[in-house]
Design brief:
The structure is a homodimer.
Chain A (H helix, E strand, L loop, with lengths): L1 H38 L2 H12 L7 H17 L3 E13 L5 E5 L5 E3 L2 E3 L11 E8 L2 H12 L3 E4 L10 H7 L2 H12 L4 E5 L25 E4 L1 H12 L5 E5 L3 E15 L4 E11 L9 H21 L5 E8 L7 H12 L3 E7 L7 E7 L2 H9 L30 E7 L4 H4 L12 H21 L2
Parallel strand pairs in A: 5-6, 6-7, 7-8, 11-12, 11-13, 13-15
Antiparallel strand pairs in A: 1-10, 2-3, 2-9, 4-8, 5-9, 10-12, 14-15
Helix pairs in contact in A: 1-8, 1-12, 2-8, 3-8, 4-6, 8-12
Chain lengths: ~450, ~450
């Protein structure tokens, strides 16, 4: 009887302790939200990054300007330590603007809105000119084979499927043309590739993005054309028009060059050796200001440091904001981060990346063991007031993914994805496309999750 | 024993029946989603409404053009019946563009970006000129009283509180200056009112909106100034600057005029006498294209009719798309809708309004009895795949609110609200501010909810 009473008393006390803890967490998160929604500097920092610096492809002069500027932002945010972590990065240059057209049998030329795919080879000064073969899948390419493909330009007309409510699913499912189309087409003797831009909407802006060659086959030049042009081109081909395509790209792949990840941290008060990273990537495609992709994630990460400092919140574990270099076309920054972690034998408990745009946050994707996942899910109710409710997604972010190698629990902010592929990797990814409140609300939820992990570990 | 077995068997059969029903509902909703996300005409219809017609304040020639155009859209969508429902609407005209400035003691004049509040009286040809008294609340106005206020211009500098994650809460809480400020200031002898625009962001666009006079006090002219100007003006006043304000408005309130609600319906197959309404409001402020407010809600409502027809889905109950006139500055359309419902003794089971913008949907606000609310909430899991999870909100929409009078269960689409008050009632509420996918996803969820109510009643 006495034991039973003791047991019940213990349960009550524990529950009450948990409830108090929960209540206290809730208050801290409310303070973080109020601070960030009222005084965030993320939006003005993003304005600077986009408007004063602009595009910042790895290895470019602008990338170095962005490194210097964000290191300064991290110092202004109040980070205990700010430093640059060396890494080697891809150095690809677009060169002069690309040109291209479709020529009808009667000689009429229709100019195309196009852009070279990232990391692709240039055409040389004469460009490539050949008949256009449209395919809608890798299977169709394979079925046509060398007999049809050889000596021609393959047009991968694979639209993003609009019925996927989560647009990243369409990006993954329908992105093969850009990612491996040139390598696959080369296998069958194609001399060039045009891909339909990976975009949700029908418009005039070509969307670039990295393609990956296969060393067993020739590297052939490749461009993305606007979805509008893709629709038009396909309609022409349907009418059995005999079409010749031409394009000229002027890009060059150079040897890797040294660059940096930018890091700012607050040292943990109790377990400083346990490191929690939060970041985005600092490099962007050369076409755009890289506002949503991924200036937003970088500025949110800096904002977390600023908000903790402004509120005098000292995390128990070390919280590190990491602005990774070279996510777009090489992954040099993420690789270096893992390498240094191993060399220094650092304990990386948790890493969070924001690389889905600074849109209204809706959840966190979790890439971790079931036990850790359940621990995070227990915190879910703390996020409801801030619009985050979905913890079912998998995955994290490509810069932090290498940390899986050392057992780090990973997560990715999952913002609303409806508008992302309207502007992704296109010239429309500019500061004006970012909403201040949406950006800040992402930072609020990220700050909350980082705080909970810093308090309780995983 | 036999009875117990029977009971269990019944429970199993019922559960299984429910599971089958649920599964079937899930399939219908998936079909609706695929149809709308692939073939919706809402976005192109909205383009027409915004770009070919544009602003459409009640009583204007454009409002009539919008009536004709949307009736045509409803016919094209395949509605069984399309008709215009007469209503009387407010007829207020802005007249020539407003002007105004702040004059410093040294005579320097700073022009203000301002707009007359909806339904406000004009200043007359001389405008109003007086000292500026800043207040931050109704309590402050009251405390200053007639002694300070009389003969002056009151400046209601009440910012939308950025810490409310749901921006509609700030709009409600901080909107008194616009809604009743002129009436309150007149009580203490003010000769004019300037209100800080009800906007989430700091920018240069004044936001209009209706104000309501109190017949016991004089009707004094009133303008909204941009948030940027409000910040500047307040900073000048803090420096104890002696400031004179001037503004001239040219607006006139005319007697009410006849207009119409636009209605298109699909007759129910089993219970045609039970009416389910879904709508938005067709009128918009004269400054803007009224894209998010509320062209979006109208086009979504038409899209529901189109999608049902395209899929051959015949609802059991009558589904009626209603485009209400005069929501912005009088409510004549909503009042007429109720009056006609009463006159015809119609059974209005349910009404849904979309008037929070065509942003990504996150939930439905419910204004109905607890029993009905619980019934709707049971359907919640059917919406998760389409981004809707929040059924906790209260309220519905101002056009359908009168139906409460006859016991109708009401609901409102609750879209993401972060960007709404950047453009609400300002010249920035244009077609380009709408995302096709966000707009369509709202229609998907509305179509799903209307379908469930048409199948099961409430």
């Amino acid at each position: 009887m006495r034991n039973k009473f003791f047991l019940i008393a213990t349960i009550i006390l524990c529950s009450s302790g948990m409830a108090n803890g929960r209540q206290n967490d809730s208050l801290v998160i409310k303070r973080l939200s109020d601070e960030i929604m009222s005084n965030s500097t993320a939006y003005e920092n993003l304005r600077y990054l986009c408007k004063k610096i602009g595009p910042r492809l790895s290895g470019s002069a602008n990338a170095q300007l962005a490194i210097d500027a964000t290191a300064k932002m991290l110092r202004q945010a109040g980070a205990d330590t700010v430093y640059l972590q060396p890494c080697m990065v891809t150095h690809w240059e677009r060169g002069a603007k690309e040109t291209g057209f479709i020529q009808l049998a009667n000689g009429t030329k229709y100019p195309l809105r196009l852009t070279a795919l990232g990391n692709s080879v240039g055409t040389g000064k004469n460009g490539v000119k050949a008949s256009i073969i449209e395919v809608r899948s890798m299977e169709e390419l394979q079925a046509l084979g060398e007999k049809v493909i050889k000596g021609n330009i393959v047009f991968f007309n694979i639209a993003m499927n609009p019925t996927y409510v989560r647009t990243f699913v369409a990006y993954g499912t329908n992105g093969g043309g850009r990612r491996s189309g040139p390598a696959q087409a080369a296998k069958y003797g194609a001399i060039g590739v045009m891909v339909r831009s990976l975009a949700s909407n029908i418009d005039d802006h070509p969307h670039t993005g990295a393609t990956q060659y296969n060393d067993s086959f020739p590297k052939i030049p490749a461009v993305a054309i606007s979805t509008q042009d893709a629709e038009w081109l396909s309609s022409q081909l349907k009418r059995k028009m005999q079409l010749t395509g031409y394009f000229k790209t002027n890009c060059t792949m150079f040897p890797d060059v040294p660059s940096f990840n930018v890091i700012g941290e607050i040292r943990g008060s109790e377990f400083p050796q346990e490191i929690l990273s939060v970041g985005g990537h600092l490099d962007s495609w050369d076409l755009a200001e890289g506002a949503q992709d991924d200036g937003a994630g970088c500025m949110q990460s800096i904002e977390i440091i600023r908000a903790y400092k402004a509120l005098g919140l000292r995390p128990k574990r070390t919280v590190r904001a990491v602005l990774f270099m070279n996510e777009e076309n090489g992954g040099g920054g993420g690789a270096a981060y893992l390498r240094m972690a191993k060399e220094k034998n650092e304990q990386h408990i948790f890493a969070l990346e924001s690389d889905g745009g600074g849109y209204t946050p809706r959840g966190f994707n979790l890439d971790m063991s079931e036990g850790r996942r359940n621990k995070v899910k227990q915190w879910a109710p703390l996020f409801y007031d801030y619009g985050v409710y979905d913890f079912a997604g998998k995955g994290s972010g490509s810069d932090i993914a290498p940390l899986k190698n050392i057992g780090t629990a990973l997560a990715g902010l999952s913002p609303d994805s409806q508008r992302y592929f309207d502007l992704h990797h296109a010239e429309t990814d500019v500061f004006e496309a970012v909403s201040k409140r949406e950006l800040d609300l992402g930072a609020v939820n990220m700050a909350a999750l980082m705080w909970l992990v810093s308090e309780y570990g995983l």
